[in-house]
Amino acid sequence: MKALIGAAALVMVFCTQAQAADLEGPARFCGYSAIIDLAPGEKVTTLEGGVHAGNFRWEGPFGVLDVRGIGWAGRPKGRIVEARTDARPARFAQRRDEDGRHGVALWNGGHGAAYFRSPAPLTSRQMEAIRRVTLFEEGQTPRDCALRTVFSWE
Question: How do strand 27-31 and strand 147-148 relate by DSSP bridges?
Answer without folding.
Answer: parallel
